[in-house]
């Protein structure tokens, strides 16, 4: 080898060596990068590009600020609330079944991410009560870039609810129309607050957009778009007895909040949701209607059955008793909050029920101006009752007008029932006697009530069955001694008239009360019964309801029945 060629060969070998090492480095880097991409979640990379946090960068603890929008103090009651706010006023023979008090949350802290689920568990801190744990995924909103596809290439999909742990893809009519939606629904909600606490009877939250309901965490989250200034957090007990601390102590408190992070959706719904509670005073016939049936009709009727009910504090026996009505209002199986671990996604959610005065609907405020006439018509339809209006007197000469007397067995009983029946039959009525209580077959009793033209009874929950009366029928309420006229009219008189019924109220005299057997005639309880109301409800109940029966003065009462007959004339 020539002396000049050796250095050239050495230099060539060195260059080849450097190229080889460079190739090894490039290939090695490529393999490492490929391994990282394969092992890592690709959606985490996507969300990093969109300014969202990947799972690996999620902070181990995030303190969620509690900013509670509190309504004005509603804990104070008027003097009448003591009478009409308790189930015992209208029916001491009913079965009221409250549940145990649920713990209230003061604050919560996000704990370490769960590597198996890709979600972060929300648990109460040592200072909070917290009924259930919450699972939240640190995800983001934001649009997916058009053109990205997952799944089968032949199908058109759109990411509506992006999360950190994986893509959530859902078919949408908007996709077929070429529209893209970021899922926040911010245009639908606008600047309207999530909740309205201005009603004296009930608090209600209503959200339109991307709403996620997590029963296990007793939370409802309204997803906000990036850059939104909305910062709302509300605490609500979805039972329409606002200010009644005893009642609400048995109701699970829910958290409604606007947020930019939330658990991923595990179940999608194409219909609105209505969330409400079934404890409180349910089990009392009057409260079954004034606290649940009338409010849920007012709230859910507009959806024509296309609505999902989610129930906190489930009372299975109650849903069985009223399954006919519930199935008319919703075509979907009930969801029990206490037994559901899904994260439900809706576009429209109502938390709480619209409620107004006792056993009534304020048509000026109700959705679609629903009224008690509508409710009366709905109840007749739900139970397939045959009569929409009373039979005109004399239209069928051989058919007598029917009078139903609600019989009681323990309190506020008619002591001279046979005498009352004889008088009514003398006036031309066909008299029917029956008892309405919590164990009654409501469907069977509804059919009976719908066949009569007049219904009468002493103040009590049995009079609630007037919802099954045909239009233009008459309800007669006997008011016991004790200054109970106002509450009696509020509970049954006003609702009856708003339903399109005739209403007569008969207040008994001292001589018609069994209290004369317990107190001397010159006792203050007969001279000024209203003065005893200051002693509170327990005294009122024990004195004027539990220990009082009625011996009706048939001569004095006779004109009331004659007026009921006149109402049957056109």
Describe what you observe in this structure:
The protein is α/β, with parallel strands linked by helices and 570 residues long. It is 29% helix and 17% strand. It has helices spanning 5-39, 42-49, 81-84, 87-90, 173-176, 186-189, 245-248, 285-300, 316-321, 323-329, 372-382, 417-426, 442-450, 485-498, 524-527, 537-546, 554-566; strands at residues 108-114, 119-124, 134-136, 158-159, 169-170, 195-196, 204-214, 219-223, 233-236, 254-259, 267-268, 273-277, 308-312, 335-336, 344-351, 402-406, 430-434, 454-458, 474-479, 502-507. The strands form four sheets. Strands 6, 7, 8, 9, 10, 11, 12, 13, 14 and 15 form a ten-stranded mixed sheet that branches. Strands 17-16-18-19-20 form a five-stranded parallel sheet, with helices on both faces. The protein has a three-stranded antiparallel sheet with strand order 1-2-3, with no helix packed on it. Strand 6 and strand 7 (204-214) form a beta hairpin. It is elongated, with a radius of gyration of 33 Å. The termini are far apart. Mean pLDDT is 77; it is low at 40-82, 84-89 and 94-186.
